[in-house]
Specification:
- The structure is a single chain.
- It is built from five helices and five strands; from the N terminus they run ααααβββββα.
- The chain has two domains: about 1-40, no CATH class; about 40-175, no CATH class.
- α3 runs antiparallel to α4 (about 95-105).
- A hairpin with a 4-residue loop joins β4 and β5 (about 155-160).
- It has a five-stranded antiparallel sheet.
- It is an alpha+beta fold.
- It has helices at about 5-15, 25-35, 65-75, 95-105, 165-175, and strands at about 115-120, 125-130, 135-140, 145-150, 155-160.
């Protein structure tokens, strides 16, 4: 079993440049509680489709500096009112936001660039990366489930389909792969 120590937390915070907002006791308690309650997979509760988000080893989990900013944005999206886009846009479903946060946390490894995060008009969330001519869009919809759009302009490889664990792993590998 891997134990999280104050030294590990300090190192992770130094890497992400968030030492100034660091609070050892509360962050340690939060990390320990999260580790004890973290499921082995995340189930998307809005459709019949289930996507498993694999566990990461603790050595690969170094949250980039952007993670807190993106999580705050996801929290803000939940509070959008009805008609937020002036075209009848539905408020973001909180279950979609929680699932999106799980995905963003899973994608947040060292060398991963930050995603763009948007609300969609049917109450969903879209997460996008456009890096080194690789375009990945994950559309999480309370109506249609989760779809992944992938296009590698270097290899000419486009595809779009309901997201699976394998597709998510492929997308993550392609985003952090060296040029």
């Amino acid at each position: 079993m891997i134990t999280i120590t104050e030294r590990d937390i300090l190192a992770a915070n130094a890497v992400t440049a968030s030492v100034s907002t660091f609070d050892v006791p509360s962050q340690l308690a939060s990390w320990v509680a999260r580790r004890e309650t973290q499921p082995t997979h995340v189930e998307y509760l809005i459709s019949e489709q289930s996507i498993r988000v694999p566990n990461q080893s603790a050595t690969s989990v170094i949250s980039p500096a952007w993670l807190g900013r993106v999580k705050r944005r996801l929290e803000e999206l939940v509070f959008l009112p009805t008609n937020w886009d002036s075209y009848g846009g539905a408020p973001v479903d909180p279950r979609v936001a929680r699932f999106a946060e799980s995905l963003v946390e899973w994608f947040a490894v060292a060398a991963m660039p930050p995603p763009d995060v948007f609300a969609t008009s049917e109450g969903g969330i879209q997460i996008e990366w456009h890096v080194r001519r690789v375009n990945i869009e994950i559309d999480i919809s309370p109506v249609d489930g989760t779809t992944i759009y992938f296009r590698d302009l270097n290899a000419g490889e486009p595809w779009s389909r309901p997201a699976s664990s394998t597709d998510l792993q492929t997308a993550r590998r392609r985003l952090i792969a060296p040029q």
